[in-house]
Amino acid sequence: MLGNGVVGILAESVNKWERRAPLTPTHCARLLHGGGGVSRIIVQPSTKRIHHDALYEEVGCEISHDLSQCGLILGIKQPKLEMILPDRAYAFFSHTHKAQKENMPLLDKILTERASLYDYELITGDNGKRLLAFGNFAGRAGMIDFLRGLGQRFLSLGYSTPFLSLGSSYMYPSLAAAKAAVISIGEEIATQGLPLGICPLVFVFTGSGNVCLGAQEIFKLLPHTFVDPSKLSNLHEADADHLHHPSKRVFQVYGCIVTAKDIVEPKDPTKVFDKADYYAHPEHYNPIFHEKVAPYASVIVNCMYWEQRFPRLLSTEQTKDLVRKGCPLVGIADITCDIGGSLEFVNRTTSIDSPFFRYDPLKNSYHDDDLEGNGVLCLAVDILPTEFAVEASQHFGNILSRFVINLASTSDITSLPAHLRRACIAYGGALTPLFEYIPRMRKSESPEEVSDNLADSLSRKRRYNILISLTGHLFDKFLINEALDTIEAAGGSFHLVKCHVGQCADDISSSELEVGADDKAVLDQIIDSLTSLANPNEDHGFLNQDPSKISLRLGEVKENGINKVPDSKKKSAVLILGAGRVCQPAAEVLSSIGRISSSQWYKTLLEDDFEDLTEVEVILGSLYLKDAEQIVKGIPNVRGVQLDVMDHENLYKYVSQVDVVISLLPASCHINVANACIELKKHLVTASYVDSSMSMLNDKAKDAGITILGEMGLDPGIDHMMAMKMINEAHMRKGKIKSFISHCGGLPSPDAANNPLAYKFSWSPVGAIRAGRNPATYKYCGETIHIDGDSIYDSATRIRIADFPAFALECLPNRNSLLYGDLYGIGSEASTIFRGTLRYEGFSQIMGTLSRIGFFNNETHPLLKNEKRPTFRKFLLKLLDVASEDPEEPMIGEKEIIERILTLGHCKEQSTAVNTAKTLISLGLLEQEEIPTSCQSAFDVACFRMEERLSYAGTEKDMVLLYHEVEVEYPESQITKKHRATLLEFGKTVNGKTTSAMALTVGIPVAIGALLLLTKKIQTRGVLRPLEPEVYIPALDTIEAYGINLIEKNE
């Protein structure tokens, strides 16, 4: 059965709330129709799975309880024992590789049935980081659930707060909807405030992994300020006037992130905190959290891993003492759900539908579902990620689907990639060599005190014995095998005295072994071998330690010092070329990697997808150093340099120092940069169109083993990715594209559209106007339509977008739409293919009239040849064929201009003439000011005035609107549906600095393209557009994570 290409998906049976799926219908469609090694997918029916059975059927899956024909069977949680079939391969979270006692019957069943077991938890990248996890979703759901309970608890204490209107995470149709609800709460806090009696409202976060980052992500949607742990007491002193001003309100909440150094301190007052020493010798440290941090906490959001050898975060007695002293602690969100762990009094789990209990420290009493009375509100739900079942399944399946083909089509484990071989606990009914330690672990008498009878009969009878403590990634990197084999190979024996296993990939484990030998020389050899395994440092005795090594302690032997753990994450570098507005958001995205604290809440979202990067160093190269320095000012890990890309030596110098280059230069400069990247074997990302000269580099890029990723901006870029996602999903459901319509535009936000043209320029008017006068070709209802460049403005049509009906818009055809039919693979099936540019209604009529007046004529004008410069007024009157103004007559004004425009036939409508006249006046073309010598044509004059008068001022914001409408016909059901996707983004002002929406929607995607290359998520080499799933799926996910909302609807 193994390797037969038939995949089964289990119906989850462990918990009624488990609605996640290992693969969504979209993933299944891709596997079935992608030409890989999956021939069939059989899905067990489930009425609670987040994706209905019918959706799986639509993409070609079979629905059946019987999975006997499947060689590979996938699930999320452990299945019931009776669901294990003989000679099959299973993949799920088994929780068996650390010999967890409660799951050993499952492992025994796997072995008895000669089955194979792959554990998602063990699928790791080259850096040892888990590839399949739900940590961020646990943090997000847990934080939202707790905020809901916090509102209820405050009400029971006599305070009405905005939190009361929040629902539990599962009550929202999507993560985006849940975030929107939290944002609404935040807006109410910012405008209406919180009662002074519950303030300062301080949220203390413990931990630094994905769980904590997910919780912080939600917290940062509220108006907030982060406070250093050492400053918490000052915060409370500042609010000491509560009693004197009881009617005051507070308009923000406070956050505080604590790490190990805030939780403990060395017992020896002469020493300073050392993280590595603390992990190796926690007994040398005293707890201080209950004295330094907890007295000022309103809420503790616990996301830290803990094991018994460490001091607790809060003991029962410490909590009682805090409450007795009047600590403002209202609640505990124990998202780790570590029962009896770092928070001693959390002695039970709660459920999604009943998530809270109240603990009264003074009476040491527990009250389930009772928020009235004294005590602390506690949340301890152990299945939080399933509350966001849609997003969690999508995220999980995006990664799992990469491995399914190998697992489904392989009958020989030795042919699997290394990361999958390492994840195989059992194969064909036998433990694989990496997991042969499990039987030794199973002989433990209790979870914490392990007594191995076989070892006991050996080591304790040996003449020489020594207690050895091993610390490190003993189980997830299988170093325990290496250590035990070393002992036995030398002729020694061991007794496993204690064992503490880490609960996630970031956590270390420890074991204490009593090692024995009859010969002192043998024991010395064992010690030497283990010391070598621990990677000794000649100067200090030990180096503690890269993830592939262990830390070693021998009996009472004291070591002089232990070096800190070197960061196993990869440090990378990116070169950004350019000096425009787009460079800043690109640099900010890249520099944010690895930084937990950030002024933008959305930066924390990157950690899950790009967690193997500790930081990205950014070099920003510009022709002028001052421009580069201005852009990078205030951005960490970014430095500006002077760089002329035409200077071969200087260009190669900087390209050679980085992993990826982003070129935001004019398109004409890209070839020079691309050739340097090919020669130096560095990836390249641009936001420009892939023209013929760039396409010709495809083979050279492939030979160099690099990717040149073009069209990775907004338009082109996000428009491609949204389109391909919609088209591919329709094809996977056997749909046929009847019509593809796309509109995109960069516009002033409504409050900034304060001129008659209702338009402003964020870049040169020269380029914008020329781009808007290119000829266009498109297909409508099977007919190919050509529009000359001179007629583009006259071809504009009125449009209203369903999701934003208040916008009065028009659309102009944009270049050759038929090219996109070929790019998107719909040229032969779609009868309508149209791409257009959006403007506010009336724009084209005015621009068309200006064109007919002659303002877009690029030829040198006779009046502008003279050394004596004419005024703008004189030049305008010349274009309007007004010979000269009679000094005896009234000055020509708006009324006369309107009449002249109509008389000359430049437009037919009175309203258009009025708006054009107002535009001419607002541009200063009636003013008695000399035209500068740089203007030699009417086009120069128009662009000069537009750049002066139609630029964004102060904190005025622009907006970007992108809209796709795809009409899909489903022949089998004879149903036609319209799929719509919309993006609306506004410019942002932070700390008085405004970043345009256009810069955000171009800069963020190019940065994400670079990150996808850095993390090897893009494997295809050559010249690419973002048209393939390996690019657009993770890119769109991350773009949304950055707060750029992509709205999809079907009708």
Automatic annotation (TrEMBL):
The chain crosses the membrane at residues 997-1015. One of its GO terms (molecular function) is saccharopine dehydrogenase activity. It holds the Pfam family Sacchrp_dh_C. Keywords: Membrane, Multifunctional enzyme, NAD, NADP, Oxidoreductase, Transmembrane, Transmembrane helix. Residues 8-141 form the Alanine dehydrogenase/pyridine nucleotide transhydrogenase N-terminal domain. The keyword Transmembrane applies. Pathway: Amino-acid degradation; L-lysine degradation via saccharopine pathway; glutaryl-CoA from L-lysine: step 2/6; Amino-acid degradation; L-lysine degradation via saccharopine pathway; glutaryl-CoA from L-lysine: step 1/6. One of its GO terms (biological process) is L-lysine catabolic process to acetyl-CoA via saccharopine. Residues 181-380 form the Alanine dehydrogenase/pyridine nucleotide transhydrogenase NAD(H)-binding domain. The keyword Transit peptide does not apply. InterPro entries: AASS, AlaDH/PNT_N, AlaDH/PNT_NAD(H)-bd, LOR/SDH_bifunc_enz_cons_dom, LOR/SDH_bifunc_enz_cons_dom_sf, NAD(P)-bd_dom_sf, Sacchrp_dh-like_C, Sacchrp_dh_NADP-bd. One of its GO terms (cellular component) is cytoplasm. Signal peptide: none annotated. In the C-terminal section; belongs to the saccharopine dehydrogenase family. This is Alpha-aminoadipic semialdehyde synthase. It comes from Arachis duranensis. The gene is LOC107495845.
